[in-house]
Write a structure and sequence with these properties.
Prominin-1; 27 helices; 2 strands; transmembrane; two-stranded parallel sheet; 76% helix; mainly alpha; elongated; transmembrane helix; membrane; signal; single chain; 831 residues
Length: 831
């Protein structure tokens, strides 16, 4: 009955949950997208820790294994189920006889024990009746006469000790009975809370399925938003990456060209300035040298004065005449050509705006992200449409698999079952009180018997006097003997009733233990139910035929139970892919193929020209402008000289000193005038030109440094420009393709991750059926086996043990009473 109840419960739960359509989807993981399916904690524990009574239960189980050592009879049960328990209709057939013999052979140990119990129950009251009649006829120890024996003292002590040991052993059995009875009652009360928690868990299981499915579907929206965000940001994610691939190469050469353009500007400015300074210096020098020549001529003319012929003056005049060569020109700027040709060529170079051309190169690199965004506008619209189509396909799963509608059937079953259970609770409590009282009365009678025996021994031992003869024994001793005989009488009266109770509970408890509890725990019970064509002769596998309507699919109760025990989803546990294949609806490869097809349509036209041919020619023209071929040595040599051969102030001072030594006259006046004129030339003409001359010299040095190796530098820049342009031209398509693949892989990875997570959640996590396995465990393993069978087995074991010991206790008590009761006659006793 219990086996059938357990099977029907599992079938009912499965059948009420499934029809011809099936389940729904869920998901997996990614670096940036993390989904956490809402899960629910359940109240009912699937493991109960062992308590202090397990050792007693194991002791009883060992006894049952000794009585019933046979293995679980799978074949016999299969045959019985196939015959639908209708053996009475064909009992005469050989196979029925063989099957009956197999059943008897398996149950032989239990049957023998039950037979012995029945014989005990039948013979004990008969023996009591005969014993009573016999004693009434003063036989069977009913004669109140005690014969003298030599070992009387020993026998009295032997019988007393034996009865004491038997009473102690019976007390242990009675304690087992009290313990089992209390355990039974205590844990039966726990059954109500166990049922409540199971029903709550089942409702939680049903309630969480819809939110889980909604969560899975909602995560597609999250994934789609993330993909749309990346598509909107394509100029950074795709264009920016393409730009980063080209930027290091392009900026290096563009910066070099930019520096060269700056040098062209600086060279032009410098040449113009140098040309102007050189022209000013030439004009200034010409005026200085003209004035110096005039001073020199004037002095020479003055030295022709007759006074110079005087012997005292001629030496001084000659001395002055010899220094006049120092007034000649020191710098010949006419040897230095003007820079007009170079300036003209530079001006030709400057006619091309190299900086503007260079900006176009920078712009072609910097505008890559914007150009990518503009050129992928249509593709992004198509990708959005494709992603929306995928979303519609996923959303339809819920519509095609109405989970909540199918689970509502289970709701009704749970509600009905719960109402039935709670409506039966008062009756169960009433019957439980009857059971508790019956077991208590049985234990009470055993305790009463043991008390009579203990009182009899106590009074007999206390009231016994060694000098008293059998007819002179005291009242206390006689009372002890009466107590023993009362215990014997009560034993005869209740022992057969107790044995009937023990036999009945033994047969039920032992068979439930061997045929339900143990095979349920080691899965042998499920293996029987999973036997092909057993329950339905037209279905190979009953569960697959019931749920999937495909009886040839291997779907076993054992596997379903294991999967539910491991908290697998209903989809996996019941192999619902045979009804509705979620993997096909969430076909990752198919969706990825559609997305890849859209991404392959991305065609980017990113023609990048770092510098036009005009700009390249401009660089070459600058290298050919001739600024590098200027004879800087001549310019530097001339500009490094002083404006005059001698410092005019010093020369004028020396001339004044010589003049002061001359006698007054026209010669002296003329020389003094020219000395002052030299000072004026130095101050007004020479000093202003000296900074310009130094500046011109420094500018020639600077220009020489700038133009040193100019052609080589320009050639390197042009070569670098050509190689970089060639690199960009040759590699840009592959860079675009590679970065497009990376970008598409990022977008696809979102959906690949989501679809994998969704499929895994649908098949493994949504509607995880552990509450069903826990409910079945609660019915069979906890309620039937632990709460009922084990305490019931301990109960019959304890009461049976005490009841069996009543037989030797009766014999010993009757014999012992002879030594305590007062006799009517006696033999002659001698010391």
């Amino acid at each position: 009955m219990t086996l059938t109840l357990g099977i029907l419960l599992l079938l009912g739960l499965c059948q009420s949950t499934i029809s011809e359509d099936s389940l729904f989807p869920v998901g997996h993981f990614d670096d940036s997208l993390t989904f956490q399916l809402p899960m629910q904690e359940y109240e009912t524990k699937d493991f109960f820790p062992p308590d202090s009574f397990n050792s007693l239960f194991r002791m009883v189980n060992y006894f049952i294994q000794v009585v019933q050592p046979n293995a679980f009879p799978k074949d016999i049960i299969r045959k019985l189920v196939q015959k639908k328990f209708e053996l009475s209709m064909d009992y005469g057939k050989p196979e029925s006889v063989v099957l009956t013999l197999q059943v008897i052979q398996y149950e032989l140990g239990i049957l023998l024990c039950a037979l012995l119990g029945l014989l005990f129950a039948i013979l004990m009251p008969l023996a009591g009746l005969c014993f009573g009649l016999c004693r009434c006829n003063r036989k069977c120890g009913g004669e109140m006469h005690q014969r003298q024996k030599r070992n009387e003292a020993f026998m009295r002590k032997y019988y007393a000790l034996s009865l004491l040991v038997l009473c102690l052993l019976m007390s242990i059995g009675v304690i087992y009975g009290f313990v089992a009875n209390n355990y039974f009652t205590t844990h039966t009360k726990k059954t109500y809370s166990l049922a409540d928690s199971n029903f709550r868990d089942l409702r939680t299981f049903l309630n969480q399925t819809e939110p889980q499915l909604n969560y899975v579907l909602a995560q597609f929206t999250t994934t789609k938003k993330r993909a749309f965000s990346d598509l909107d940001n394509i100029k950074t994610l795709l264009g920016g990456n393409i730009q980063e691939q080209l930027r290091p190469h392009a900026l290096l050469v563009l910066d070099d060209i930019k520096a060269m353009a700056k040098e062209i500007q600086e060279t032009s400015v410098l040449l113009l300035h140098m040309e102007q300074v050189l022209w000013e210096l030439k004009n200034g020098m010409e005026g200085i040298y003209k004035n110096l020549y005039q001073v020199k001529s004037n002095v020479e003319q003055s030295l022709k004065d007759p006074m110079c012929n005087l012997s005292s003056v001629s030496a001084k005049c000659n001395s002055i005449r010899m220094t006049l060569g120092q007034l000649d020109s020191n710098i010949n700027l006419d040897l230095l050509p003007l820079l007009s040709p170079e300036i003209d060529r530079i001006n030709v170079v400057l006619q091309t705006n190299l900086s503007s051309l260079l900006k176009m190169g920078y712009t072609s690199i910097n505008n890559i992200p914007e150009r990518v965004q503009n050129q992928t506008k249509d593709i992004r619209v198509a990708l959005r449409r494709t992603l929306n189509d995928i979303g519609l396909n996923i959303v339809t799963i819920k519509q095609k698999v109405p989970i909540q509608e199918k689970l509502s059937v289970l709701w009704n079953h749970i509600d009905n079952l719960e109402s039935i259970i709670y409506s039966k609770i008062p009756r169960v409590e009433k019957y439980e009180s009857y059971r508790w009282l019956s077991c208590l009365i049985a234990c009470f009678f055993l305790v009463l018997i043991i008390i009579f025996y203990f009182l009899g021994m106590l009074c007999g031992i206390v009231g016994y006097h060694p000098n008293a003869t059998p007819i002179t024994r005291g009242c206390v001793s006689n009372t002890g003997g009466i107590f023993l005989m009362v215990g014997v009488g009560v034993s005869f009266f209740v022992s057969w009733i107790l044995m009937l109770f023990v036999t009945l509970t033994f047969v039920i408890g032992a068979n439930v233990k061997e045929l339900v509890c143990e095979p349920y725990q080691n899965m042998e019970l499920f293996q029987i139910v999973d036997t092909p064509y057993l329950i339905n002769e037209n279905w190979k596998y009953y569960l697959s035929g019931l749920i999937l309507n495909k009886p040839d699919i291997s779907l076993s109760f054992e596997q379903v139970y294991r999967d539910c025990k491991d908290n697998e989803g209903f989809y996996t546990a019941l192999q619902l892919e045979h009804i509705y294949n979620v993997s096909e609806r969430l076909n990752i490869e198919e969706h990825i193929r559609h997305l890849n097809a859209e991404f392959k349509k991305i065609k980017l036209n990113l023609d990048i020209v770092l510098l036009s041919k005009e700009g390249r020619k401009n660089l070459l023209d600058f290298s050919d402008s001739g600024v590098e071929q200027i004879n800087y040595d001549n310019y530097l040599a001339e500009t490094a000289k002083l404006v005059t051969k001698v410092d005019l102030l010093t020369y004028a001072t020396d001339l004044t000193a010589q003049t002061n030594k001359l006698p007054p006259g026209e010669l002296k006046s003329s020389l003094e005038f020219n000395a002052n004129k030299l000072r004026t030339i130095h101050l007004t003409q020479v000093l202003p030109l000296e900074p310009e001359l130094r500046e011109l010299h420094m500018n020639f040095q600077k220009l020489q440094q700038k133009t040193n190796g100019l052609k080589v530098k320009v050639t390197k820049i042009v070569d670098s420009l050509d190689s970089t342009q060639q690199f960009i031209t040759n590699n840009l398509p592959s860079i675009i393709m590679q970065e497009s693949k990376v970008f598409s892989a990022i977008i696809i990875s979102y959906f690949e991750h989501y679809l994998y997570w969704a499929k895994t959640s649908v098949t493994r996590n949504i509607a995880a059926c552990k509450p069903l396995a826990t409910a079945l465990d609660s019915v069979v393993d906890i309620f039937l086996c632990k709460f009922i069978t084990e305490p019931m087995n301990l109960l019959w074991f304890g009461i049976g043990k005490a009841t069996i010991l009543l037989l030797p206790a009766i014999i010993i008590a009757v014999k012992l009473a002879k030594y305590y009761r007062r006799m009517d006659s006696e033999d002659i006793y001698q010391e």
